[in-house]
Amino acid sequence: MTDVEPLAVTPALEAHALSLVREGSRVLDDVSFTVAPGEIYALLGGNGAGKSTTLLTFLGFLSPSGGSVQVNGREVGADVAAARGAIAYLPEAATLYGHLDAYENLAYFLDLAGRRVDRAALEAALDQVALPPEARGRRMQTYSKGMRQKTAIALALLRDTPILLLDEPTSGLDPVAIDEFHAMVKALAAAGRTVLMVTHDVYGACQVADRVGLLRGGRLVGSFEAGPQGRIDTETVHAAFAARGAS
Amino acid sequence: MSLVFRIAREEWRLWSRSRVVVIAALTIAVLVGVTSLLTARGVADQAANRTARQAEAEAAFFAQPDRHPHRMVHYGHYAFRTPPPLAVFDPGVDAVTGQSIFLEGHRQNTAMFADARSGADLGGFAALTPASLYQLLVPLLLIVLGHGIVLRERESGTLAVHLAQGQSGLTLMLGKALALAGVGGLLLLPVAALALAAIAGGEAPLAAVLLVGGYALYLAVWALFVLAVSLWLDRRSVALGMLVFAWLVTSLVVPRIAIDAASAAVEAPGKIESDLAMLSRQRAIGDGHNAADPAFEALRKQVLDQYGKQDVAQLPINWRGVVADYSEKKLTALMNEIAEDRMTREAAQSRVVTAFGIVSPALALGAASRALAGTDLATHHRFLRESEVLRYDFVQALNNLHARALTYADDAARSSDPEAEARTRVSAKAWSLLASFRFVPDPASARAARAVQPLGLLVFWLAVLCCAVVVGARRLRP
Ligand SMILES: Nc1ncnc2c1ncn2[C@@H]1O[C@H](COP(=O)(O)OP(=O)(O)OP(=O)(O)O)[C@@H](O)[C@H]1O
Ligand SMILES: [Mg+2]
């Protein structure tokens, strides 16, 4: 199924008839969707559906076997550096460096990315993700999963890129942390950032996303957007997700 | 460049915060330190000791009273091989071959006084030389430190973040390589210190610098291998297992196989067989102590003809001395032939072992290290040849004295006539015919020439591994 909605502006992210063969097996098959600037798009799917693969394709780590992927209207393969420069990526289960504290972690990644930020900017970003101040000077190996995730998000924020790719950002977080996280993602989108996040969590996806794409076996088998009540209907999506064997 | 340095610095910070790494590094540092000190002390003792013993042996020879020259032939003399300054780092074959020889008439003795005694002195530490520590243990430290250098980041997802930030795989790998190089450089400090001490002790700078360079090359090969494995494999435990396996094979198994292959490829007759062959040919030469031995019949005719005499008693020279001189010459030619044959075989075996350096950097480095330190087999062989020349010269000088300074009549009557016996004693002044002997190492250029091939093998490995790392870095994916 493809997005038919005509877009006035250049999409921040666009997959067009994307297919990908990995070690002989077809992992993505004719996947098309777009994410507009400032939009939150959730890619929902079970294990092995091809969600992480889709993100890696936008980053240019995997090249499409067919179709195309574009970032800000430019073919990723034509200018990988531009695509990566526009995107902050949060990998699945990112743990950053356990032997460094939050400041050291952020400073190191930003140094390598060529961004100079001062201590105040680091504090501001950590405030934004609500990492407890007393934890910031501790080595990250002592952090809980939620604290690690928050630090990783702070890094993505500090990169100050227009696009965020988040791979299962809420898996392993407690419900309160998930709510906090969703609130933050919404605030970011409101400030103009484009978010493409990947998740198994039907409820969370419906809560946070403007649109939800359902991926199964490498094919985009459903696309949902908010109804008149302003919310994507969780029941409908859940039913589609659970309908194994359909298409 | 500053990025590369920043990446390396982060790696150093990680290691400095890891207890395992700090303990492993301290253990190696203490081992290297203790071993260097003990070896240095041992070798310095030996050097002083052997130089003193050489002088003592000469003084003892010169101090012999007036005697029959042939008794001096059997009194004998010692030749000592003083260890070169770099033996402090790599005693090489010294411990096995022995470093002194008893020189006497009619025999080529084997070298003796191997290090077994000094090993007992130092509580067994002497067998662990700085060279063997570097060849064996330091790669293990690099494995412990470096097997996860890329995989750790792959498994924690930080690699994905870096690459997604647009970092190039090559820059990351350069940083990691620099981090390992820093450790290697630190580990080389003791070698450099010992090399400097050797230079201060009279060693040629070329040899000392090449020695340090050889070890640097070896550590670089291991560091790049560790990096390449961490880069190409996708699980840390597998990488560690594979590295340890490679270490076992190249450092312990291949050297063992190389020695077996060398003895299989180059047949060397055992001592008993060669002694028996020697005895039968020696019998044909005749016993130099018995001037009436039929083996000297032809010589007798020839000498009598030369002087136009009918009987040996009429000769102007002492026939017994002539026989002693002649049989020593023949015997020495035979002994040299056998010794050269043995040394040729040993050298061929050593070449086979070194050729295995193509699959074992430890073997290649060992060969280069011994050659540069002047403690290799070639040096030992030169010592054997030079001490043989010393032996032959003084024995023949004594035989010459025997032939010219003693009359045949006195010599023949000396066991029954005390006056004749007194006349066969030569003045002790004559013992100064013994040349003074000081074994010196080969010039640095000759040692360097012998080290070129094994060092070339290390350079080959370095090039192969560089390619593996560069190719892997270019296709690095999260
Ligand atoms: N490195 C790889 N090489 C070959 N095939 C792979 C590789 N990684 C994943 N795949 C395959 O690609 C398909 C999609 O994998 P992907 O990781 O994108 O799934 P996912 O939707 O992210 O699943 P999950 O929810 O478990 O993270 C799977 O069938 C998987 O087996
Ligand atoms: Mg995934």
Bound ligands, named by name, code or SMILES: adenosine-5'-triphosphate, magnesium ion
Measured by DSSP, the beta-strand proportion of chain B falls in: under 5%
Strand order of the largest sheet of chain A: 6-7-8-3-9-10
- Give the end-to-end Cα distance of chain A, rounded to a whole number of Å: 11 Å
Give the terminus-to-terminus CA distance of chain B: 23 Å
Give me the side-by-side strand order of the main sheet of chain B: 1-2-3
Classify the beta-strand content of chain A into a percent band. Answer: 25-35%
Which series of helices and strands of chain B comes N to C?
HHHEHEEHHHHHHHHHHHHHHH
Number of strands of chain B: 3
Any low-confidence stretches of chain B, pLDDT <50, length ≥5? 114-126
The major pleated sheet of chain A works out as:
6 strands, mixed
Structural class of chain B: mainly alpha
Which residues of chain A form runs of ≥5 with pLDDT under 50?
none
Count every helix of chain A, treating DSSP H or I runs of 4 or more residues as helices.
8
Structural class of chain A: alpha/beta
**Annotated CATH topology of the largest domain in chain A:** Rossmann fold
Walkthrough of the structure:
The complex is a heterodimer of chains A (247) and B (478). Chain A is an alpha/beta fold. Chain A has two domains: 10-86 and 164-247, 3-Layer(aba) Sandwich (Rossmann fold); 96-160, no CATH class. Chain A has helices spanning 51-58, 80-86, 102-112, 119-128, 145-159, 175-190, 202-208, 234-242; strands at residues 13-22, 25-35, 40-45, 66-71, 74-75, 87-90, 163-167, 194-199, 211-216, 219-225. In chain A, the strands form two sheets. In chain A, strands 6-7-8-3-9-10 form a six-stranded mixed beta sheet, with helices on both faces. In chain A, strands 2-1-4-5 form a four-stranded antiparallel beta sheet, covered by helices on one side. The longest helix of chain A has 16 residues, at 175-190. Chain A starts with 12 loop residues before the first strand and ends in a 5-residue tail after the last helix. The relative contact order of chain A is 0.18. The mean pLDDT of chain A is 89. Chain B is mostly helical and 478 residues long. Chain B has one domain (2-474). Chain B has helices at 2-16, 19-62, 69-75, 94-97, 116-121, 130-146, 151-156, 158-164, 169-200, 205-232, 236-265, 271-285, 297-307, 319-355, 361-373, 377-405, 408-413, 418-423, 444-474, and strands spanning 77-80, 100-104, 107-108. In chain B, strands 1-2-3 form a three-stranded antiparallel beta sheet. The longest helix of chain B has 44 residues, at 19-62. The radius of gyration of chain B is 30 Å and the shape is elongated. In chain B, 42% of the residues are buried. Residues 22-23, 27, 45, 47-53, 92, 200 of chain A line the site of adenosine-5'-triphosphate. Magnesium ion is lined by residues 51-52, 92, 167 of chain A.
